[in-house]
Design brief:
The protein has about 425 residues and is mainly alpha-helical. The protein folds into 3 domains: about 110 residues, Leucine-rich Repeat Variant; about 120 residues, Leucine-rich Repeat Variant (Alpha Horseshoe); about 160 residues, Rossmann fold, CATH 3.40.50. The chain contains 20 helices and 5 strands. The longest helix is centred in the middle third of the chain and has 17 residues. It starts with a helix and ends in a 17-residue tail after the last helix. The C terminus is likely disordered. It holds the Pfam family Arm. InterPro entries: ARM-like, ARM-type_fold, Armadillo. This is PUB4 protein. It comes from Symbiodinium natans.
Length: about 425
């Protein structure tokens, strides 16, 4: 068994120009722990290093990494997924090798695309090129013919590919994805249902033709399964139900982004549901995906950049410690600083979710990351007494979504001050 120390030695040799083959061999020949360590090492070697990517691919790592995503331990699966994503990033040849790896091709493509597509617009454009050669059609086929896990992966991949990409939406619809996605909302696993709902919402967003096709598919599905009519498919707009909430259309409202401390708790779960409701009703609201892994930073950076370019709204979920400075380079602290740096462009709308307001992030000489109380200074600078907050305490997701929707429609770009006061919302 190759222990961590041995893996570290192999990594050091690889960084020094030595062979990567020994690490690749451990993906198949080692123990479960060894496979985890080898995948972790390859993930790190592939990150941001074009030469290493080529060396890893030439050493034959793609096939065992794809296999590990299917068969490895939870740790190994996670490392393999990120390794594949790192390998494919800005390398079309490797991306193609991953998507077209050995049989079962469809299953591999679904799993690989799921982790290559999310959070990176350039990656989605490159993967769309592969779609012309038949990458999307196998995903659609898996929605009906694959295993439960295959259906989940395929729906998730299509969800990401459809997000914000008009050409991909058309390709996915033409490939016949709408009917099986609608069906999956009724019959799939909980994971598959969630992915299918968001995939349909993304497909319909700002595409009236696809929206109509989804409505028609819903109607056909309801006639075929009258007992399941309560399971509505998210479309834009849709009637109120257990899974869908009707709001005034968000078409023309300002772009927005949720800024929050992501800890997997109830507040995060509530606001992910709020995000889903807003997206269903055509509100262009961004929120970093819960499963974005190492792409979290790229997604956050891209969303902040768009917020600044389009003079958008930062929806600050104000828990007690919102804005605290942490070890992460991409945190609510950084987002708050960004809003302050670009206060002429970004409007901050505080969402009060706790009795303590404004937030009181930790700081001081004993604080590991913020001995100078920077976070508290940013909070004071942004959350001024004149800044109007929305009181979300104790409210369900649907009610919060309605409140936010009203603000996004009201807060048109023309109402923002031309300079110096972008962090203040209109009363």
């Amino acid at each position: 068994m190759a222990e961590t120390a041995e893996i570290d030695q192999l990594v050091a040799r690889a960084k020094a120009g030595g062979g990567i083959e020994p690490l690749v061999a451990l993906l198949t020949a080692g123990s479960e722990k060894t496979k985890e360590n080898a995948a972790r090492a390859l993930k790190s070697l592939a990150y941001g290093n074009a030469d290493n990517k080529v060396r890893i691919a030439k050493a034959g790592a793609i096939e065992p990494l794809v296999a590990l995503v299917h068969t490895g331990s939870d740790e190994a699966k996670d490392y393999a997924k990120v390794a594949l994503s790192n390998l494919a990033f800005q390398n079309e040849a490797i991306e193609k090798d991953i998507v077209t790896s050995r049989q079962p091709r469809q299953e591999n493509a679904a799993c690989a695309l799921k982790y290559l597509a999310y959070g990176d617009a350039d990656n989605k454009v490159r993967i769309a090129k592969a779609a012309k050669a038949g990458a999307i059609e196998p995903l659609v086929a898996l929605l009906t013919a694959g295993s439960e896990k295959d259906k989940e992966n395929a729906a998730c991949a299509l969800k990401y590919l459809a997000y914000g990409d008009a050409d991909n939406k058309v390709r996915i619809a033409k490939a016949g994805a709408i009917e099986p996605l609608v069906a999956l909302v009724h019959t799939g696993s909980d994971e598959a249902k969630g992915y299918a709902k968001v995939a349909l919402s993304n497909l319909a967003f700002q595409n009236e033709a696809i929206e109509k096709d989804i409505e028609a598919a819903k109607a056909r599905s309801s006639k075929a399964k009258p007992a399941e009519q309560a399971l509505t498919v998210p479309s834009v707009p849709s009637a109120p139900s257990a899974s869908s909430v009707a709001l005034p259309s968000g078409k023309g409202a300002r772009v927005a982004m949720f800024s929050a401390r992501f800890d997997g708790g109830q507040v995060e779960k509530t606001f992910r549901e709020v995000h889903r409701i807003l997206r269903e009703n055509r509100y262009d609201v961004m929120m970093v995906e819960a499963d974005s892994g190492e792409n979290f930073g790229d997604m956050t950076t891209a969303y902040l950049g768009r917020l600044q370019r389009e003079k958008g709204i930062m929806l600050s979920v104000c828990t007690e410690h919102y804005g605290e400075k942490t070890a992460s380079a991409y945190s609510s602290f950084k987002e708050l600083k960004f809003a302050l740096d670009y206060e002429a462009d970004i409007t901050v709308v505080p969402l009060r979710v706790e009795d303590i307001y404004p937030p009181r992030p930790g700081g001081g000489p004993k604080h590991q990351h913020d001995p100078a109380y920077l976070a508290q200074s940013y909070v004071v600078s942004v959350f001024k007494p004149s800044l109007v907050f929305e009181d979300c305490r104790g409210k369900p997701a649907a009610e919060i979504a309605a409140v936010i929707a009203k603000r996004l429609r009201k807060e048109t770009v023309s109402t923002a001050s031309p300079s110096g006061s972008g962090c203040q919302a209109a009363r």
